[in-house]
Every structure is written in structure tokens, then in C-alpha cells.
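2024-03-11 09:14:02 DEBUG pipeline.ingest accepted 1 chain
2024-03-11 09:14:02 DEBUG pipeline.ingest length=223
2024-03-11 09:14:03 DEBUG pipeline.predict start
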Amino acid sequence: MSEDVLMPDTPALPSSAILLGQVAKVRETMNAHADSLDTRAGGTLRAIRGRKPGARVSATRRRSTGSVFTPRDMLTVYRTSPREERQEDDIRTVDRGEVVTVYCAYRGTYGNYPRRFMGCWLDLAPDGLIIRPMLLLAFLWRRIPVAEDIHSAQTRPFASQWEAANWRGSGAYASGGALQQAGKVVISCRTSAGVLEFAVPRPDVPLVLHYLTRRIKDSATGA
């Protein structure tokens, strides 16, 4: 006499389209939450700094040409010649007093800055640089205004081959390589307290140097 054997149901795996859709929704929610936090924190920071009433301040932030966040963004970065007009537009944006955000890494030789490069968002803001370290949990992210005076800024090679390989500064990512536009370049800033450095996407080097040079000149003239 045969008996029917009940087999446990095998759960159907979700399709890739469903998974991608869920990831997109989560990303959209996190971005909206981060933008909300930035707007509120930015208002508090400006109040603390005592901005004059009626002074023009833009709450909008623009991603720089070299910042890679989505597959669509990557299409404009990983080719050999990025669109020069977009790079120029980045510069015009900061000159108008608006914020351009660069995805890079930072470190310093003094204070609480990490001694090794750490990923961050770098806001090129009208009042000065603002570092937002990228931590594992988004709610732990904080804003670090760079209050020190910057005396000089220039590019330099990575300190070691290991550092260059770890931060896309060698091999195919080096200057002249197939992926050079996705590589990073170190911008070293000498401040009133020590040295502060940023590993910046190569397409964003002219933008960051332009911003820093303008800040240095304004500081020297008291503007």
C-alpha cells in the first residue's frame, strides 16, 4: 500500500526585476532622508556662523562630474573624455555661490582627522569646505566644517603603491590608462594647523583646485 509523501513547498525566488525595484525604492528613501537632514543641519550651521539677514544662500547641492553613484552617472565618467562643458558648469555653479558635492576621500595630519584616507562627501560650500564622512550607518553621518585657513593647495602622487592601488591611483586608473577618468588624484592642502588631503576623482581636480584657489585668495584679501 503506497502512501502519499508530503513535501515542503519550495519558496519561489523573487525575480531580479523585483529585487532591483526594491533596491531602487530603498535608495530613493535614503537619499530623500539624507537631503532632509542636510537641509536642516545646513540651516543650523548657518545660524551658528551668524550669517547676515537676507544673505543669499542656496540649499541645493549638485553632484560633481567625477562623482560616481549610479550606472547612469558612470557612463559620463568611465569614458576617456568626459564632457568638458559639464566640468565647466561645475565651476560656474560654485562661482554662483551654490554647493557642489564631490565623492572623495580625506585625511589629515592633525586633530581628529583620520590618518588614513576615509571615504566622504565633500561639499564645496560658499562658507568653506564641509566634510561628511561616509560611515556604515547613515544616521551616524556628521558634518565637519573645515574651519582652518588654507594657505596652499596642490596635487601630489600617492604616498605608496599600496595607497595608489587601494584608491584607484595606479594601473588602468593612472593617468593615460583606460580608466583614467575613474581614477583619483591627491590634492594636498597646507592649512594653519597642518596638512589636509583629499583623494579626488580626476575629472573633479580642476573644480576642487579652482574652489580652493579662490578661497585662498579671498582669505588673503579679507573678502
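2024-03-11 09:14:41 DEBUG pipeline.report The first strand starts at residue 61 and ends at 63.
2024-03-11 09:14:41 DEBUG pipeline.predict end
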